[in-house]
Amino acid sequence: xxxxxxxxxxxxxxxxxxxxPLPVQTHVESCLRCQAELARYKRMLRGLQLLRTQLLEPAPxxxxxxxxxxxxxxxxxxxRSLLNKRKVAYVGAISGAVAAAGAAAAIIAVxxxxxxxxxxxxxx
Length: 124
Ligand SMILES: [Zn+2]
Hints:
Blueprint: H1 3-15, H2 22-30, H3 32-53, H4 62-123
This protein binds zinc ion.
């Protein structure tokens, strides 16, 4: 077995409370790298078990600071959202005004050309 293969099998063999497969056990007994990996993993499991039983008291004022930070973040998000909506409204209004001006210019141009044609016909 290779060290990489053993490293992948160590967690599952310890988590399941099953006996370590013989090839893994044989490799670990002869390999310092895998012995160190096994020791690190067991140490990590002990640390995690300690965390389950330890209750941490929050520092005084931590709840207030956390709620304040959440409030500030939500206010900033709301302001950014409002500014983005205003930008969309401005762009929509400007686009509408440009389209209306273009339509008016087209109507005026058509009316002028009709008048010129009518005047040209009247003079002939
Ligand atoms: Zn190894």
